[in-house]
């Protein structure tokens, strides 16, 4: 496959992944009648089963077993992976809860903040340097959060929690780098016991559950797992083929979709202060994206000059 075709395939994979992540906002609305922690348990269980099937078809089952055994003999690394599993599980549950309780706009604010939180983690924990533009983007994001806090007298915990749990997950992934598919399989494997306990307790505590979870609902719950795993696989394939800066622009599809869905499809209200808060966040994101593109272009020029 030539480089142009490979790049196009990468764009298709990446666009498809982020399109599904954007569509999930509507998908969770269809499951709003089910407690978010039950949806999360189903999502983990069926995602794990689906990923096992994909791994078996790709002939990577031996690699999964070897990496799992290696982690068992490395308690510190295993603890980091488990912490990442808890962080991403909390992130998933928060978002499902947000959609079911008419807080999509709050959730989209948190999703917009994720790249900036990742940058802050890099500065604080990995000694990554930031220029004036980077600090300006962080300052604008902080101003946006502060506006909402002062206006409503309440810290936007949902948005901050979504950004923080995603940042925590990225932090763990930075420390322990695993193949995307195998890593996700191990992460869900570690959290499977909790999911099984949740589903077992919910089954015995809810009369008539088999009738309630039959037909369309059952298919939606199984599909939740597939729609969790599939975009991760596509994203991994796309990341191999296109530049990181292009991926950086794709990543804003999900919060943008959530915002538009919240306003135009779910008709969530937004006052002037909330809009102004989003405006600060959007400005921060624009500066962040411009900064990343400029740094990437400068790196390419430097690389060409050294040849």
From TrEMBL:
Keywords: Cell membrane, Membrane, Transmembrane, Transmembrane helix, Transport. Residues 9-149 form the EamA domain. The keyword Zinc does not apply. The chain crosses the membrane at residues 12-31, 37-57, 78-98, 104-125, 184-205, 211-235, 247-267, 273-291. It is a multi-pass membrane protein. InterPro entries: EamA_dom, EmrE-like, RarD. The keyword ATP-binding does not apply. GO terms for cellular component: plasma membrane. It is found in: Cell membrane. Its main location: membrane. Belongs to the EamA transporter family. This is EamA domain-containing protein.
């Amino acid at each position: 496959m030539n480089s142009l075709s490979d790049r196009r395939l990468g764009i298709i994979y990446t666009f498809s992944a982020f399109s599904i992540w954007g569509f999930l906002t509507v998908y969770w609305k269809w499951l709003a009648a089910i407690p978010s922690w039950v949806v999360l348990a189903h999502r983990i269980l069926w995602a794990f089963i689906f990923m096992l099937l994909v791994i078996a078809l790709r002939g990577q089952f031996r690699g999964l077993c070897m990496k799992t055994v290696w982690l068992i003999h490395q308690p510190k690394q295993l603890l980091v992976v488990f912490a990442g599993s808890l962080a991403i599980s909390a992130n998933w549950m928060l978002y499902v809860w947000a959609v079911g309780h008419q807080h999509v706009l709050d959730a989209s604010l948190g999703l917009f903040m994720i790249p900036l939180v990742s940058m802050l983690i890099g500065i604080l924990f990995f000694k990554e340097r930031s220029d004036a533009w980077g600090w300006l983007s962080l300052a604008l994001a902080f101003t946006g959060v502060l506006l909402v806090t002062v206006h409503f007298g309440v810290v936007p915990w949902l948005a901050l929690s979504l950004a923080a749990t995603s940042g925590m997950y990225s932090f763990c992934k930075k420390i322990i780098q695993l193949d995307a598919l195998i890593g996700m399989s191990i992460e869900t494997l570690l959290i499977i016991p909790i999911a099984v306990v949740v589903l077992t307790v919910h089954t015995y505590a809810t009369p008539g559950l088999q009738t309630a979870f039959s037909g369309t609902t059952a298919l939606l719950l199984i599909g939740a797992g597939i729609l969790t795993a599939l975009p991760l696989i596509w994203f991994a394939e796309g990341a191999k083929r296109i530049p990181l800066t292009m991926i950086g622009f794709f990543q804003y599809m999900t919060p943008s979709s959530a915002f538009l869905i919240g306003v135009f499809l779910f008709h969530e209200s937004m006052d002037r202060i909330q809009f102004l808060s989003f405006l600060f966040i959007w400005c921060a994101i624009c500066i962040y994206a411009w900064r990343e593109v400029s740094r990437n272009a400068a790196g390419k020029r430097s690389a060409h000059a050294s040849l």
